[in-house]
Amino acid sequence: MSSSSFSYPTFLPKLSICSGNGFKCPNCGLGLVVLESTRTYSCENNHSFDLASEGYLNLHLAQHKRSRNPGDSNEMIRSRQRFLNAGYYQDLADSVIAQLTEVAGDKRLLDIGCGEGYYLDEIRQIYENLQLVGLDISKTAVRLAAKRKLNAQLAVDSAFKIPLFDNSIDTAISVFSPISAIETSRVLKPNGTLIMVGPGETHLSGLTAHIYDKTVAHKGNYDALDNSHEFILEKQIEIQNSLCIEGSGIADLLHMTPYYWHAKPQQQKHLKGLRQLETPVHFNVRVYKNLLKDSSSA
Ligand SMILES: [Zn+2]
User: How many domains in the chain?
Assistant: First the structure.
């Protein structure tokens, strides 16, 4: 077999391991290692997964899927990528990065629900040596993230069944994404940090005013953490700003949110015809600590 120009990502282990910094086999939980001269990752039980040409692993087993293409729709993902790449949420990215005070050197950061990789990309530009791991349920999103050439470990799988070993992550982030307190705590090291971003009360109220008769304040998405025994809230940073969105950015914003499904056809048409849309953006950036785990229960 002739060797192609493909080079193995250096971040994926070639040695057999049952712990550490590789991915876990979604079938049996053993470590996945790459077989020499192939692009196939396999566990000791011979469950194997091919590395996609873009450089990610699809570990989401068909029997665990609730639909053929789980996660956000392709249109949602591509709209979000255009909108984020335009820099509209730069303040949020900067705020998340500002909370990464304890990450340095060879620390490992997981983005749970990484989407098309915007936040990982922003983090990589500041922390070049950080080991980045991205996970999303949408294959389209992970493929787009891989195309950003993040030098990150990227996998398609659920946030409720993270294919990583216990205590293998120093810091996790979750931006507008579903999260499991138990799974996130499991993969985080004791005392590890979780940065979670959700909507503040007035988030995108300039957009929703065109869709709903009365504005309903966001309640945030913290219930999974605030009612958990795994995490304790250390601080919350509020970001409030006003955005002026222009041209096709308005359609992208509409399509990247669930509001699109609530908007009547004439409301969609009206919004897409606007030259500018002014709206508040309101984010809560919450920093949690993973509580020390009871090793006797492991
Ligand atoms: Zn296996």
Answer: 2
Distance 223 CA to ligand 1 centre (A): 33
Residue matched to tokens 């020390």: 292
Are 74 and 45 members of one domain?
no
Higher pLDDT among residues 162 and 16, named by residue? 162
Query: How far away, in angstroms, is 28 Cα from ligand 1 center?
Result: 4
Q: Is the pLDDT of residue 120 over 60?
A: yes
Tell me which residues have their CB within 5 A of the ion that is ligand 1: 25, 27-28, 43, 45, 47
Give the domain extent around 209: 55-297
- pTM, rounded to two decimals: 0.90
Same domain (yes/no): 135, 42: no
| Cα of 32 from ligand 1 centre, angstroms | 8
Q: What's the pLDDT tens digit per position in 68-89?
A: 777 788 999 999 999 999 999 9
* pLDDT for res 294: 61
Task: Calculate how far, in angstroms, residue 12's C-alpha sits from the geometric centre of ligand 1.
Answer: 16
Is 2 in the same domain as 61? no
Give 57 Cα–ligand 1 centroid separation in angstroms.
14
Mean pLDDT of 160-169: 96
Ligand 1 centroid to residue 49 C-alpha, Å: 10
What average pLDDT score do residues 51-73 get? 84
